[in-house]
Amino acid sequence: MIIVKVKKQLIGYKGKFTLEADFIVEKGEFLTIFGKSGSGKTTILRMIAGLEKPDEGYIEFDGKVYLDSSKKINLPPQKRNVGFVFQNYALFPNMTVYENVAYAVDKKQLDRVDEVLKTVELYSLKDRYPSSLSGGQQQRVALARAIVKNPDILLLDEPLSALDYSIRSKLQDELKKIHKIFNLTTVLVSHDKPEVFKLSDRVIYLEDGKIKKIGTPREVFIEKSISGKFSFYGTVLDVRKADLVYVITVDIDGNLVEVATTQEFKVGEEVLVGTKAFNPVVIKV
Ligand SMILES: Nc1ncnc2c1ncn2[C@@H]1O[C@H](COP(=O)(O)OP(=O)(O)OP(=O)(O)O)[C@@H](O)[C@H]1O
């Protein structure tokens, strides 16, 4: 379990404000920090990693104290077992895929490099240089480098936001898989609601440095659920205009449904499809 209790005065574009966050992340949990630009999301990740110091605070992982300002404890990043992936891959251009990943571990752990490269499906590309890889492949190298040291905590700062929709979606599936396989405790920063829905067990809604809401994505994002007979969450796959309404195609767990609506939706948006007016019919199939 990660315990985070931090306070720091920041200087935003509107002036000074205090980042004040107090939350726990259960072991094996996938937690996302969501919020507008400048709300303090990255600063929280950097504090967990030890790259930034709060004015006051306490951070621990499974009883190991990373930071305790009252006791002047502040472990440096290399003493915190944390893997970090940023938006801009940050790979070494003069090293191959294998070398980029192996750089993070000492010689005794080299066996693990091959294992991790196979898990993220990069093994066949291990002798290539970053410049010859796609954005999605480069981000998988960054991910492999972050997990090869077997971190207790994986920190992801908008790692997929530079990628286009289909690659992002595929990498989201892989992230979820890797989180489970390596039994990680993951904290993601994202401002993409469908991504938050797809990946997170819980989400923190951060606004101007304060936690406004914390809960499952449904609890945090769906203000009021439809008080009707049934409703399902899905992702918008297609939008077309038909006279005065839009017809959207929604993927509900692999089932495609078409719904007419006067509201405009975007492809990739997470929606709740429900009905209030009639009783659904259930037929044995
Ligand atoms: N060490 C610091 N001292 C003072 N202000 C800081 C410090 N670090 C960051 N800030 C400011 O605090 C604000 C929050 O920054 P942060 O990067 O945490 O936001 P964010 O929510 O991750 O934003 P984005 O989504 O744009 O990345 C920014 O306005 C930033 O300039």
Automatic annotation (TrEMBL):
It is an enzyme of class 3 (hydrolase). GO terms for molecular function: ATP binding; ATP hydrolysis activity. One of its GO terms (biological process) is quaternary ammonium group transport. This is Spermidine/putrescine import ATP-binding protein PotA. Transmembrane segments: none annotated. Its EC number is 3.6.3.31. Signal peptide: none annotated. It comes from the Bacteria. It comes from Sulfurihydrogenibium azorense (strain DSM 15241 / OCM 825 / Az-Fu1). Keywords: ATP-binding, Hydrolase, Nucleotide-binding, Transport. It holds the Pfam family ABC_tran. The keyword Lyase does not apply. Residues 1-233 form the ABC transporter domain.
